[in-house]
Amino acid sequence: MGYLKTSVRDPTLIDNKPGAGAMLGAEAAVRSAADGYNILAVNMTHSVNATLFQGRVKFDLNKDLKPVAFLAGSPVLVVVPANSPIHSLEDLVKGAKQKPLNAGSSGLGTPSHLSLALFNQLNGTSIQHIPYKGGSPSLSDLMAGQLDVIFSNFPESIPFVKAGKLRAIAIATDQRNAQVPEVPTTAEAGMPKLNVEQWTAVMVPAATPDAVVNTLSQELVQIMQIPEVVARSTELGFRVDPKGPAEFTQFWNAEVQRWSEVIQAAGITAD
């Protein structure tokens, strides 16, 4: 936000509103003035919530917010305990069909949860989902051997992989990552549909004028092209790929549809 403050020459205030699966912050944004000064940082969880909370809240993420810019994406890393007999996705499928396995997640409707659901659907497995309140406690239990696998957010698990406390068996992208070049992609493992990113983007209240949206989008895209921003984002495991309103709208709609199908097939609810 510091770069945005400098770029637009106006004070920038970050108002964190955690809770209710990120829906408290979303509602605050929906109810705010549509003047370009109120923006919402969104991620994959919001595209999941568009289905998960449909009819349960008094606003619609698809109708009450307008896409501004896609900023970056961070891949899901499939990790197991360092001493696990599972060394590949093929091993994971075989293991899951031989005996019950447990997978932790950072909570209901999170990328780790939906990635697991997608994996189960693609492979006919039934790995049990164990939701936690955040990524850290689930990773702690994984390292302690109380879980078999986690489809983890890259920035959360990569330090433990590098320290030898966890083993990464796949990265959910179509290209290998420079931080862990030895880890095969899900596409290489024969699962190209298991391509999942915890992406970051920006939306505004739906009534925000297009001219304001376009100006804000241009500023954000330019910020994401600053070498220092690219370097720091890459260091944290993000793939910087800024997109404007049209491309982000198309991406958003595809993500909502994709995860809606996974949610319905898995019978996932917000309860």
Automatic annotation (TrEMBL):
Pfam families per UniProt: TctC
Coiled-coil segments: none
Signal sequence, start to end: none
Superkingdom in the source lineage: Bacteria
Membership in a protein family: Belongs to the UPF0065 (bug) family.
Protein's UniProt name: Tripartite tricarboxylate transporter substrate binding protein
Protein's organism: Comamonas kerstersii
